[in-house]
């Protein structure tokens, strides 16, 4: 940090801190009508989760995301140690996230900690099988992109790789009962890659997203094996039914089902609980709100050439 | 950092630094024809602004973006202290940014500092009302997305939340006379969320952007209340008229007006100074360059199914 | 960091580390069938490359990306020193990347280092001319966007600026024989800007991308002078021919050619080895898979207004 | 960090990690005969305490140890906020330290936390009066050293200032029942200043140590008001009686008593439970193991000049 | 940072922040009777000075304290750049320190900055000659200690080296009119090495302190060429005369004069304005308050052996 | 960092960088008469060694210096992983240090690396036995100080503990042929504790230094078992014989031998190659240059009381 001269005339630099601070407190009191039993709930920490994800990523693929100097004799010490620190951190974040799950009002402090520990332990037990599925995803990327020169390039240079790793970790937590945490993880991936996969979505093995910026996969989407997506593909909801009070009904199936071996090119928008049949190909920029049978090939009509002037 | 062995044969590692440095200086001298009175103007620091935004964000929503252990007795100390450090930093950035506003050539050093202080103080005074509008935005997100489970999730996991918070802060600075600073802030938000809102745009309360990657909102766009946008929506200019010298005319109204209660789905492109009437819905991927009356429902024609092979 | 109380009941916090670590090792052994001569190859470090890019960026444009307090007497010391540290770091990353280039199996340790040093020295020698082309890009941005108020704004606030700087540096490394490194750099730019330019693409001077989120430019694309792109434009491949074994054929020309003075608006998708003739304008959201002659104006048919309900 | 080339021949770099790790575990098992109920007690963190002390120091003297830009309107926000973060951190360290106090075997987790919270709250309540005594110490330094030009110099440049501030904070914790924590604090001061004051010592107001390196003040020493010490003064124990088992008897009074207005010059060694009467002056390098009456002046005999050769 | 579980029962963790903060403010108001024209003076920053000293040290001896990878072509860029950043930082610290020099009450803001700039520029101009004297000190160390194996060892492993480098820099600032800054630097050296040299002392070339812990050299001491000191040597004042008001008279000569080629062994205490004649040797632990002629050899009488029991 | 306003008037802030940099280069060229084969040797890094020592310390005593949350299942992963990173770092530092050992002129790059690797591996193999001796030292501290309440206190709060741990590690490296590295380590300990033990000294088990500030133990000192020292004890050389050229003779035995069970109290100075017989006690401030038989009790004569005024 390079600091040369600072003006000294501090008497100018009053910000009316008292007034602003008071008004902000009043603003908070107006909006926080419901207090959580007199104290503030700790939220999960995005910074902590980023550290956890870095750790888990290097546990799963230590030769690519771990320290560069790992050797055969040192790699297991690295994996075990990083796993331990990551899980310790995760357990605390799970505990905080449990405070935001619906019926936790009756949970004692000890009960919450115990559940967080159990979820974390179950999550750890799933890591080897998560790794297995991720290996199928990496191979799908390598085989699916003619520009990919090595698995190393797939791991280092493909945003889809980060997106699918973080999705599979988030999905495991989502299923184990930590949905808020899973959502924070999916948003970390989204921010870094431009790929927005809701952790509730179900995605089969050998999944590949190329380029990926702008991809959106909704909460209730179901995706089979060997599916390939390109950038800016949306698997979204078409409409949001409301209940008799006008509130949106939450949680019902409203996103597409993609069967095995489907390919969807850049910019296609697939909306609603429709089914894209096995082996179908959906062209770029296609707008699709109806199911299509297996082996369909859908493409946008060629834009007509027109001289505007 | 894990450093094992380094090669010692430094004699190989000459980079012709002298030559390259000289050529780069010559390149600079060629391009910098106009010098600013013999010395280099300090630019606003993006890193400083990121720190300022972190601070202001936690001042506005301390229970979600502040320290996790805040209590009723400590929260005002945190808010006041963070406000103070953030505003001190901001005042310096405003001062630097003023160097880049048009007619500042005649401004004395003291005059610039005084204006920077005044702008910062005015900005601080607006924070409580900015917070009020942001609360309406958060509620719009919670009510507008069936996947949202809590306000906490909206604050932690929605890129649109960061985009709108940073937009509203940037817009305040834009209006107070610090447009370059406002643009840096909007680019910080863009880089983090994929949502690109020009700080000159005018956006009403209860605004919600879902997913958001690829959204672009232009400098002269005007958006009413309770508007909702999805990813990859463009509110852009259609054409850029040039003056008699062939230079683009800057600053004239050229982006759309969205009236209250408009919804625009993913990938729609709305261009030019047109008006989308109150309560209209624009479907995904729609390409629109003409005004539409209130309560319109515009959608793209369904792509025809065609078996390509 | 604010740490209050931690639970002490550590006996709950066993994660079955031994079991999970063992299973992960088995999973690695299954997937890593091919070992690289008994030890692990070091991969290029993304963090190191980010530091290198920060350094090179400030070497090219020290008054905008360097320290704020640079003066006429200090600027060359800053440039020379930053150049030296950046190139030292780069040489090591180049060496690592060379391990992943095809025929390196016969390369000795000393040979690799020598090649890395030579590539780095050649790269350094190109920096002044790279700067020259970048200046043309900056001027194109300033002249091409009516919202741009100064070159400073273009350097600080336009994601396209980072994208083109990093592309031109990556392209130089790609041509000098460090393609993996070039790809990591392009992915760093992609992650930060949403703009995905393969370092193999060839792009002429005075190139400008506005907004940019979602732009994809493929490996074999060729772009002339004074070309302008908007967000979400894809210059992609249409199909991926496979060889007799079913493997994708890698490296053949498969992306578009854009001649001089072409403009492509937001969301257009241009696929395959087609040529967009000089001076053509392609409208937003256009889907184009055939060549067009010079001075063409292609636009999407206006979506018909239809009241859905 | 500047990293150029690293040798690749990793196959040489096996360290027999397995063997060494196993032998270290066996060594631990031999020495840790007594296990603490099957799990490892967390120790207080020296790094956390250093952060706490930085915080408390700036709470006590915000204009000297706080942020440089504090103003009348911001200072209380700074003090309150820093106090809160420091006390939160301290409460956790107190809790850990309580695990090492004798009869804690029967303490429940909740009981420990409650005691830690109570000790921390009591400690906080003493801070204003601690500050009052420290002000008398600062004035004694300013008045006692002809080289002191301002109170600012006393706060910034005198190691004795840090030593007395940390001693008074440590002594308060020692009396409140956190002796291990108090000892870590005294060792932090010792490491930084060369002045080793046991937190159990009792020291009156207006105390001044000049230069200070090598000063040692033992656990049961008692020091009156307006006492002044120079570097390398020892207030130590003369002998350590053992009980019938040969173990040293711990805790009995064994260090000197210095009455008010005593001055002890550099290098003097005062040993045993003796009393230095009010107003006495002890000269440099004096070796003293017997009480002296008030107003005594003790000095070492002048070394005789002797030409050795 | 490894954080597992935290207790949630925050309602216990109120610290009475309001009360303590109020009492601390009252305590400040009592002690700060004299206010400095309504605002708080910024103090020099010890952290900034540590950074400055690191920089200046590497400017003076770049091959030992600079980056390890410096080459003939890069070393001047490193030196020039580090010099620039260090001097920029120093100028600000000098400006702050000037606020504490006696008659600065009438100084305008601009006048202070100008003086700070001038002092810094003069200081920079002295660096080459300071380096010349330091080289004589390093050679004296290498020649004076039979355990020294190389100049590199003297630079890396001798606390006396840091002490003399920092002293010579501090002394230059002291003479240029920044005594408070000089004192902070001397205390940084003291804290790191245990050697306490007042920046007002005058020390000739080829000066060597071995081991050094506990050495004290007073403000008005004068030391000739080729002098050697060992650990725990005090060159102090004998008594402090007071004026008619009882205040200590500040600034008068009160510390010893050591002529050329004097050697003083460990633990010797030399007090008062006495002269140790050229070529004299003072033995360990000697207590000396009278001048001695040239070539004297003074030693402590051998302690008699006495069986205590 | 809190930065408010900076003065802009940079035209004042020229430091004559060119002149000063040139003069410093000339000064370097004058003093560096002997060049090391045209390039600069890399020196060992004190910062790297501090990191290595932190690592090794936590490898030896993981429950006290390691992460606070270690469990039975995680501790070996932590130890193995930390050992690996520390040894990798150490090997590089050993390699650098070998450049400074006398006859390395003929060593090839590969030869140096191989020797560094071998020294590091041998060092690692000694760690378990080093730990065994250190445990005897810790027990000696606990038993030798009536103020010590637990082994935890000895590990956390006694500077003598750090001094002996670092000495034993440095001594191992000294004996394996890395004396410069050993000296840097001993100076790190000296700077932190005020205790200066030359790594060449030989020290038996169950060694305890209390308080410790100012202790100096010379290169050829030999210390038996169960020896106890207090602060400011010097075990030094009496005189330094020169050869016929006037250069000091390096390396000959010149420091004291302390037999088993010797105790030396604060401030005693023991000089020359003398022997303190088994079981002897040397009192505080004693000056001793002659051998004493076993079981001697030596003390300083009591200072006579004399009223100075």
Oligomer: homohexamer
Globally, the shape of chain A reads: globular
Kindly report the CATH topology of the largest domain in chain A: serine acetyltransferase, domain 1
Structure summary, number of beta strands of chain A = 14
Give the distance, in angstroms, between the N- and C-terminal Cα atoms of chain A: 55 Å
InterPro entries (chains A, B, C, D, E, F): Hexapep, LbH_SAT, Ser_AcTrfase_N_sf, Serine_acetyltransferase, Trimer_LpxA-like_sf
Catalytic activity (chains A, B, C, D, E, F): L-serine + acetyl-CoA = O-acetyl-L-serine + CoA
Pfam family, one (chains A, B, C, D, E, F): Hexapep
Protein name (chains A, B, C, D, E, F): serine O-acetyltransferase
Question: What tags apply to this protein structure?
Answer:
homohexamer; 309 residues; alpha/beta; serine acetyltransferase, domain 1; UDP N-Acetylglucosamine Acyltransferase, domain 1; 2 domains; five-stranded parallel beta sheet; globular; disordered N terminus; disordered C terminus; amino-acid biosynthesis (chains A, B, C, D, E, F); acyltransferase (chains A, B, C, D, E, F); serine O-acetyltransferase (chains A, B, C, D, E, F); Trimer_LpxA-like_sf (chains A, B, C, D, E, F); transferase (chains A, B, C, D, E, F)
What does this structure look like?
Six copies of one chain form a homohexamer. The first copy, chain A, has 309 residues and is α/β, with parallel strands linked by helices. In chain A, the strands form three sheets. In chain A, strands 1-4-7-10-13 form a five-stranded parallel β-sheet. In chain A, helix 2 runs antiparallel to helix 4. The first copy, chain A, is globular. The N terminus and C terminus of chain A are likely disordered. Chains A, B, C, D, E, F: One of its GO terms (molecular function) is serine O-acetyltransferase activity. Chains A, B, C, D, E, F: Belongs to the transferase hexapeptide repeat family. Chains A, B, C, D, E, F: Keywords: Acyltransferase, Amino-acid biosynthesis, Transferase.
């Amino acid at each position: 940090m390079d600091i040369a001269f600072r003006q000294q005339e501090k008497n100018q630099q009053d910000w009316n801190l008292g007034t602003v601070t008071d008004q902000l407190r009043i603003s908070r009191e107006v909006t926080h009508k419901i207090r959580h039993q007199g104290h503030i709930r700790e939220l999960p920490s995005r910074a902590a989760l980023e550290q956890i994800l870095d750790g888990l990523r290097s546990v799963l693929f230590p030769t690519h995301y771990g320290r560069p100097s790992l050797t055969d004799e040192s790699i297991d010490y690295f994996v075990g140690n990083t796993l331990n620190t990551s899980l310790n951190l995760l357990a605390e974040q799970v505990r905080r996230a449990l405070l935001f799950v619906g019926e936790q009002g009756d949970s004692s402090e000890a009960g919450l900690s115990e559940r967080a520990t159990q979820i974390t332990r179950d999550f750890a037990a799933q890591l080897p099988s998560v790794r297995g599925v991720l290996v199928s995803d990496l191979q799908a990327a390598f085989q699916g992109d003619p520009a990919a020169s090595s698995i190393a390039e797939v791991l280092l240079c493909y945003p889809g790789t980060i997106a699918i790793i973080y999705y599979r970790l988030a999905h495991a937590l989502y299923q184990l009962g930590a949905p808020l945490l899973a959502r924070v993880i999916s948003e970390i991936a989204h921010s870094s890659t431009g790929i927005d996969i809701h952790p509730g979505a179900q995605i089969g093995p050998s999944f590949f997203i190329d380029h990926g910026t702008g991809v959106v996969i909704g909460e209730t989407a179901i995706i089979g094996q060997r599916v390939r997506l390109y950038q800016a593909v949306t698997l979204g909801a078409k409409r949001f039914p409301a209940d008799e009070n006008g509130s949106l009904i939450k949680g019902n199936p409203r996103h597409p089902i993609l069967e095995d071996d489907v390919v969807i090119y850049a910019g296609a928008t697939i909306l609603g609980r429709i089914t894209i049949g096995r082996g179908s190909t959906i062209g770029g920029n296609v707008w699709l709100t109806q199911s299509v049978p297996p082996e369909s090939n859908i493409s946008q009509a060629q834009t007509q050439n027109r001289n505007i002037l």
